[in-house]
Design brief:
This protein is α/β, with parallel strands linked by helices. Strands 1, 2, 3, 4, 5, 6 and 7 form a seven-stranded mixed sheet that branches. A hairpin with a 5-residue loop joins strand 10 and strand 11. Helix 3 (53-64) runs antiparallel to helix 9, helix 5 (88-102) packs across helix 9 (157-173) and helix 13 crosses helix 14 (244-262).
Amino acid sequence: MTTQQFDEGVQAVIAASRPAPDVELAREAGELIGHMLGDGRSILDPSTTIWTAEAAEELRARIGDNPLVGDDQGQWDKLDLQLQGAPRAVVLLAAELVFLREHPLRSALPETRRAHVERVLSHLETATTIPDSMSNWLARPAGTAGFEPGSWYNGALWRHIIWAATFVRHWSSLPEGERTAARTDPWELQKVMLASGKDRSDIRNAMQFLIRPDEFEPISSAGMKSKIRDALAVRIGGPSGGDPVSIDRDLLAIRAELAPEIGEPFHFWRPDVAELWDSSTVGPATDSSKAAALGEPRPRHYWLYSPGAQASEWAEFSVNDIMAIGWDSLHDLSTYPSRESIRQVLDPEGTGGSMKNGVLALWQFQNEMAVGDIVYAKRGRREIVGRGEVTSTARFEPDRASFRHVRSVNWTDVGVWEHPGDAATKTLTDITTFHDYVGRLEALFTDDAEPDVPIPSTPVPGYDKGAFLSEVYISAERYERLSALLSRKKNVILAGPPGVGKTYAAKRLAYSMMGAKDPSRVMMVQFHQSYSYEDFMMGYRPTESGGFVLTEGPFYRFCDTARADDPDRPYFFIVDEINRGNISKIFGELLMLIEADKRGQELRLLYKNETFSVPPNVHIIGMMNTADRSLAVLDYALRRRFGFFEMSPGFDSAGFSRWQQEVDSPTLDALVAVVADLNTVIADDPALGQGFAIGHSYLSRSIGTDDDGWLFSVVEEELIPLLDEYWFDEPGRAEEWSGRLRAAIA
């Protein structure tokens, strides 16, 4: 439906629900768009007609027929080469398309947007001056309106110009009656855009918003639009269809339903609105929300925090059970969509001064801390003055005199403790990954140091065979074989070529056999040539005083944790690149103890006067890359103790086929077909074989990434260099298949 199909009262509510800066941004572009869809004149040079089929086709051909592939030049450098010698109308057309492309970008700096337009205009033989109206539009401060694009948008300049030029060419060919209908009906205009050629949903969505901000959302990602619509469609009686027109119509109807409930202008990505359609996100994407999006429970984090210079605010914070940070002039941090948007406000002149610590502290305080995290308050570098647990999300309290960015914290320990070493001088530091350091800090407050396994700060979700098969691209029959092998042998090695998802599958195999995504029962290490028994099991390590102390390794501590738990609760120790280490040197006496029929048997340890056993509930999953030429034959002692499971590309699996259908990208489909043929050739090559096939992970990406630009990067920066290595002595064959891969994404 359109706003014309709502009654006047609903139309008014919808209009009032749209943020005024976004509407104003689109209104500014309206003058230029009026010429694009009308008389065809340039706004930069009104004496020149630029919105014509002839100018559009020459611009398209200069870029589309001469793509200048490779990463030795940036996209703007390539555009410079493609515009050399172009007629005046073509240069002006390119400049105005560049303006339209960047005008709705929320975090783009005004000087950057202007510089890009001027760069294109520099190709004119006779210079033109940017009119005052456009100068004012280009001066809009960053962070005030529009949408936040992904890197796929920013890096797709040439693809966007090709799409826009193709649309202009198609528009010019339409009968006047069809153009009149499209000017007045946004859905007819959208249909014209979709019919103009190969769809580029991100730039099309941007253009739709600029042309009709009353109907279309300021969202470039088709995946995000679909996700919002699917989650909120219940409010309008269900989705009306899966095509772009249906999705945008449904979003308009959803806005009409939400507007009275919210009662003020809103974006769909505003934190309280985002909660309605994306339970994993509150505000901008955070570390924890990214983990949730990947289906991973977020582990508890540990933070070192300074409550003001030399703990000047500690007396108030500790009494009121809060923590707070300064930079009050930024106002509400939830309105900043990225670190870059914060940096731009802290450094408005673009001096390039180092803001990374301040930007990071603000971003992490607002977006990355979570309820349940542990905070250690410090005074200077030598004293700890408190320990607490975060109990709330971040909030902005404008009525406070200072330190207005606040979280609630249950300060369980308040006093003075000597800091074990020198503390970082930053306001806020995430110390989660420094396990020994966290252990020493915890030892100040408890008898036992924090265990190495990550404690989930969110509820542990269930996980089963069905969940595994929906995420890992192997068949149900092969899953049954793999899980049975691991249950029987206790130890398996997932072997396969690069990109078949061995690491991804290992964790999910563990979760499926646990019945839950519980990271506290999974640990991962990576072997390398220098890895030793002392790193893995236990050994002497130097201390700051110049002596040595016996330190327990990750496998020793992991077995201790598993042994103390219910023997029916399985634990999984994952070893990446298991064939890179010296197995005898790393495992030592464990080579016997890890055998399935030796579990529970004890042996005296090398460095400690005690006996040790590997508990029956500990399983070991190793991964090895079969395409690594530099590795020696795997240790035969290890082969006897591990079951081997071959991981192969999953392009023909039901899971990958389902994902491919959901992505609905003809470019992806074409590339998958070429890679499948390429794998057949690789498998038949006696110098390579199946172990060198190209895995499906190369071509797997989040459905929310709706632009195909990432496929170009995969081909140019990953697959072609791999072929050059495979066929270094057959450059002709490498070049042949490189050409076929490039043709698939052209």
